[in-house]
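User: Before I run my own analysis I want an independent prediction to cross-check against. Here's the chain; please return only the structure tokens and, at the end, one sentence I can use as a sanity check.
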Amino acid sequence: MMNMKKLAYMLCIVLALGFTACGDDEDKVPSVKPTSTGTMTDNDGNEYHWVRIGNLDWMAENMIGGKPFYEYTYLYLGYYQYPTVQFAMDEERDAYWENYGNVYTYEQALENCPDGWRLPTDDDWKNLESALGMSDKELDKLGWRKGAGLLMTQTVEQGTGLHMLFGGQMGLGTTGNIYNISNEGVTPMGIGEYGMYWSATVDKNYELQCVYCRRIMPYLNEVERTSSTTQNRWLSVRYVRDAK
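Assistant: Structure tokens:
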């Protein structure tokens, strides 16, 4: 008969292997493919691909319609004029446009919505995150939440086809040292380091208008749910619609 010490040792090994397996399951990135794909056209005639994930169709490319961000010459803050977002060289601006598309204020994101589509609500984003494997206990949290991040960046060949990009953000202000203000205007920040996307849902916990946004980073299987001021800030946009 096996002695008690040896039995206890073997039981510890089994439990340890069990916990390791559970951890591996939690960290495993699921395989998700779109159930349908197609193309759509914005109000300016630009064509985009879309993918169906769960019960929603998502644009698979960043929006470029509407007035380009670099054509806005001035914004007004109180009694002061500030130059709008600018790049040091036109070549850098053109490279940004080619790689990441246009960026929009919150109001512009709402105004440029193509017919039949909408700026995703906070619940639309949660719907997507759930379809990509994020657990229910993570969905309603603020800050970085485990899951869905890597799947949001995949091409069709890799999986989801959402192909969300890391275009950073642009804006006027100094909150959190996000922006560098110079005499030439505002230097775009975070390009290639993260992607920042609007939602349509206002966060009513603040006196100033703030809305929920999503941030993703390369190689990180997490998605940040954060509340951002809408004042003088440009973010990337993906529109969504209910699956037909």
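Sanity check: Residues 5-24, 74-83, 173-185 have pLDDT under 50 and may be disordered.
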